[in-house]
Amino acid sequence: MWWWEGRIRWDELARALLTFLIGLFAIIWYAWRYVNSRKKPPLLPPGPRGLPLIGSLPFLGSNLHQCLDELARRYGPLMKLQLGTKLCVVISSSSVAKEIYKENDIIFSNHDLPIAARIISYGGSNLVRCPYGPTWRAMRRVFNQDLLSNKNLDVSKDLRQKQIQKMVSELHSNAGNSVNVGEIAFATSLNLLESMLWGDRLKCEAIEGDFQQLVMETIKLLTRPNISDFFPFVAWFDVRGIERRMRKCISRLDKIYEAIIERRMNLDGVDDGKAEDATGGKDFLSILINVMKDDDPKKPITWTNIKALITDIMVGGTSTIATTVEWAMAELIHKPEIKNKVQEELKAVVGAESRVDESHIPRLSYLHAVLKETLRLHAVVPLLVPRVPSQSCVVGGYSIPKGAQVMTNVWAIQRDPAVWDNPLEFGPERFLGNVVLINDFSFFPFGSGRRKCAGLPLVERLLPLIVATLLHMFEWRVPDSEKLDLREKFGVTLTKANPLVAIALPRFHPPWRCTTD
Ligand code: HEM
Questions:
Q1: 3 state SS of 285
Q2: Predicted structure pTM score
Q3: Distance 222 CA to ligand 1 centre (A)
Q4: Pick from 247, 244, 239: nearest CA to 119
Q5: What residues line ligand 1, using a CB cutoff of 6 Å?
Q6: Where are the domains of the chain?
Q7: Which secondary-structure segment (H or E) carries 249?
Q8: How far apart, in Å, do the first and last CA atoms of the chain sit?
Q9: For 262, which of 57, 108, 124, 354 is 20 to 30 Å away at the CA?
Q10: Each residue of 318-373: pLDDT tens digit?
């Protein structure tokens, strides 16, 4: 019958159509799966599993840089670590560091902001903790162009020389006795930075306000691991009392800053911008106040920024320089043949019985090699300042989520046997000659990229000046009762586990001929 025949044809057609549609659906489904599987975000880097809730916190020893190095040998140069609620990523090779600091520099241009740092920086208003953006850019410009320009550092040269002289006199009065080299280096760095900040007259007033004690307490609190940083939900309890003590510090520091700023403005007013305290109005505080008053739209800084920048200089500058001086002296006392070479160079450049002057520094190439080698073997900021990516990104084939804390183990990278011959040996010669280290991610103790250490121009003047003076003016030896060891202790700066105690004996007799007189 026509309708039956027709139905049969209709059935066949329907079956064929159905078969075609199923086939088409299967192809589309497989294609979709394939495309999606290729689009899947890369995995997080490998790393230890850790315990529920607390992660790997209980397994980390006190020398964190060494623990992370050991873990990296097992899990690789890009490693994930869960610390409480915090996801950390640890970088332990120069090639991965290059991807972070060069190829993805903008994404990684924020520094981490732990609770103690947030309090002392007026909520991230200083240069170290300020989020990357226009305010950071303005402060960095002020730091580079106004405070630490070559011209301005030249002007304050006499201030530094005076503090160096003070260090020499103190060592002279202690000649033949045991002295703690780290303490001397710390006091000298503090004095140097403070006199550059606001000159000697205001320095006396700051001392009355216990400024130096407060700086030391601040550094100590910044060093302490804070449970609240790893478990923000218990931050309210402030279990270790760090937040409470830091608030006390900042409130006392703030009072000192307010008083000194007022005094500086009065002095500058009275003396028509030339306060007669030997800074000639060129101390950092005067400069900062002038920048603020100038209302330059490119440098819109506030009173809060000024106070936060003072803390930056004091906290960022003192322990880093002092620790480097102590390590350099320890290595040189440990290796007298290297110390003798430095002293010979000093004799040739500075002259016997003359005082070391900043103008000698560019000609002290062996001393420079010694200082570089010190910073290579004893990276004083061993994990740099942790960075926080502003967006999720892929590095070394692994995913690094937005907000993770990225630590770079520069201590391990600078001892990598794949890059350095005899990496554990103190050998300044490796830095002599035409060594190109710019943008080399096997040696970067000052960090890299936009957020690289802003204090470098000052370090380049202070560090050689202190070490050269110590070696040129004195002969050093460890007292018989002491044993020189080179073990390390982790903190904000990587210090010696046991302080360097040594005896300084004058090489010349005062008064010295002064090359600048
Ligand atoms: C041996 C001495 C020093 C060492 C090893 C050192 C090391 C560092 C490191 C590793 C960073 C982080 C860099 C990064 O994230 O890539 C940094 C940042 C910084 N340092 Fe230093 N530093 C030293 C001395 C100083 C001094 C003397 C000052 C101040 C006068 C200073 C001021 C700063 C500031 C303001 C920053 C933050 C820069 C920014 O975030 O833009 N540092 N330093």
A1: helix
A2: 0.90
A3: 15
A4: 247
A5: 111, 127-128, 140, 312-313, 316-317, 320-321, 324, 380-381, 384-385, 445-448, 451-455, 458-459
A6: 57-506
A7: helix 242-270
A8: 127
A9: 124
A10: 999 999 999 999 999 999 999 999 999 999 999 987 999 999 999 999 999 999 99
